[in-house]
Amino acid sequence: MHFNILTIFPEMFPGTLSGGVVGRALDKKIWTYDVINIRDFATNNYGSVDDEQFGGGVGMVMMPEVLGAAIDSIKNPGKIIYFSPRGRTLNQKMVREFVNEPDDQVYTLLCGRYEGIDQRVIEEYNITELSIGDYILSGGEIAAQVFIDSAVRLLDNVLGGGDEATQNESFEIGGLEWPLYTRPSVWRGHKVPEVLLSGHHGNIERWRKQQSDEITKERRPDLIKEN
Ligand code: SAH
User: Fold this and answer.
1) For residue 131, how far is its CA from the centre of ligand 1 (angstroms)?
2) Rounded to two decimals, what is the model's pTM?
3) Is 112 in a helix, a strand, or coil?
4) Residues at CB less than 6 angstroms from ligand 1
5) pLDDT in tens, 151-188
6) How far apart are CA 205 and CA 197, in angstroms?
7) CA distance 86 to 3
């Protein structure tokens, strides 16, 4: 999987993606990326990438000539995604769909800044808008890292434990995960639930399912309706 990342802050990459299983996958070239500095495509001597909004109001907008030139510089842009609160909200099902697309293993990720980008860029390149949640970030770089992390960990040979490791997770199991415990079996007087020490796989599975159902019903009833 390859990502072209368009940003005015190239030093922010790989950022959080350099650590853990995703960082190891980067070392192994299971995924690769190029960072394109949008500012390199500025058309004036000041390196401006933004200008005032037509119609007035506070806040600047990223200019179409600059963004267009930056996108055109990419040999194989693949599917172009612009991170924006106005996009569809990313969820695990969508991440799986992106990962499973047979010929679309190249993504160009456009990180907005200021108030966002000129609408005509979205139309010209038929860009998909994606949000990572109902809150406002100061830029799309964190959103791009969220997208890459969530996609890369689903690629083959990234997680130890294979398919089971990615399938036994919240959202993948049709709800939220059950509570997790490790050694010691008693910690500060708190005991691990007896059933988990029993070695009885059927009972353990039933207990986990029941815990998962309860916690999902309490915290995220919307997930139950979906299934
Ligand atoms: N004026 C915009 C917000 C701009 S925030 C609006 O009201 O919708 C600046 C940039 O941060 C955006 O261009 C986008 O790339 C990024 N961003 C902010 N919040 C985001 C979110 N929830 N999901 C994805 N990207 C986001």
Assistant:
1) 8
2) 0.96
3) coil
4) 83-86, 111-113, 115-116, 131-133, 135-137, 139-140, 143
5) 999 999 999 887 888 888 888 888 999 999 999 999 99
6) 13
7) 22
